[in-house]
Amino acid sequence: MISPWDRWYSTSCCLCCHVRTGTIILGIWYMLINAVVLLILLSALNDPVQYRYHLTSSELGTDIDVMDDANICIATAISLLMILICGMATYGAYKQHAAWIIPFFCYQIFDFALNTLVAISVVVYPNTVQDYLQQLPGTFPYKEDIMSTNNMCLVFAVLLFIGCILSFKAYLIGCVWNCYRYVSGRGTTEVLVYVTTNDTTVLLPPYEEAIAIPPKDPPPQYMEA
């Protein structure tokens, strides 16, 4: 009987490329995104006046520090950690080291769980969508038009958007998992080959071990007296 894990196992992703190639591209893409975020955070930490991470009273009605130095330092550390995790996944997929892919896979599971909790909170508390829209600054485009829309339509649109994101993230999780399984299978050295006939099964050693076995010495020749 085929297990569900084997049924969904595939060595290709995005209908064209190998799972190793897909994992490498995904790791590089995440690294680039986090590198850009890291540069923005470092620039904001270096020159806070230019990047204006302090919202004025004309935007929200109160004077609120959106990002202080401590929060920027925490976000910077998270970006550095993400770059490290994505780099490990890229290196593991390229050099075929399965253990290096596990941290990135765990991050994907954690991110998927957080987005699922957001979707559940929207279903349980549908008024949170309106509350979030009210917290947006007055200069946000089409804010009044969006708030005038029916609340149920807004909830449905948000859930549809989150559902599409979750589906895409689940597909990427499957690609990384298949890459991990492929690399793990390639790295296994003790491979047993079974040759099955009608009434018997023969267990053969790996090919490398079979050719490494030295030949037996021939029996001594019979000498006539």
TrEMBL record:
- Residue intervals passing through the bilayer: 28-49, 70-94, 100-125, 152-172
Q: Which topology term describes how it sits in the membrane?
A: Multi-pass membrane protein
Q: Could you list this entry's UniProt keywords, alphabetically sorted.
A: Cell membrane, Cell projection, Endosome, Lysosome, Membrane, Transmembrane, Transmembrane helix, Transport, Ubl conjugation
Task: Kindly list the GO CC terms recorded for this protein.
Answer: cell projection; lysosomal membrane; multivesicular body membrane; plasma membrane
Its annotated compartments are: Cell membrane; Cell projection; Endomembrane system; Endosome, Multivesicular body lumen
Q: Which Pfam families match?
A: Mtp
Q: InterPro entries, from UniProt? A: LAPTM4/5, LAPTM_transporter
Complex and partners: Homooligomer; upon reaching the lysosomes. Interacts with MCOLN1. Interacts with NEDD4; may play a role in the lysosomal sorting of LAPTM4B; enhances HGS association with NEDD4; mediates inhibition of EGFR degradation. Interacts with PIP5K1C; promotes SNX5 association with LAPTM4B; kinase activity of PIP5K1C is required; interaction is regulated by phosphatidylinositol 4,5-bisphosphate generated by PIP5K1C. Interacts with HGS; promotes HGS ubiquitination. Interacts with SNX5.
The similarity annotation says: Belongs to the LAPTM4/LAPTM5 transporter family.
- Function description: Required for optimal lysosomal function. Blocks EGF-stimulated EGFR intraluminal sorting and degradation. Conversely by binding with the phosphatidylinositol 4,5-bisphosphate, regulates its PIP5K1C interaction, inhibits HGS ubiquitination and relieves LAPTM4B inhibition of EGFR degradation. Recruits SLC3A2 and SLC7A5 (the Leu transporter) to the lysosome, promoting entry of leucine and other essential amino acid (EAA) into the lysosome, stimulating activation of proton-transporting vacuolar (V)-ATPase protein pump (V-ATPase) and hence mTORC1 activation.
| Name this polypeptide is given | Lysosomal-associated transmembrane protein 4B
| Source organism of this protein record | Pogonophryne albipinna
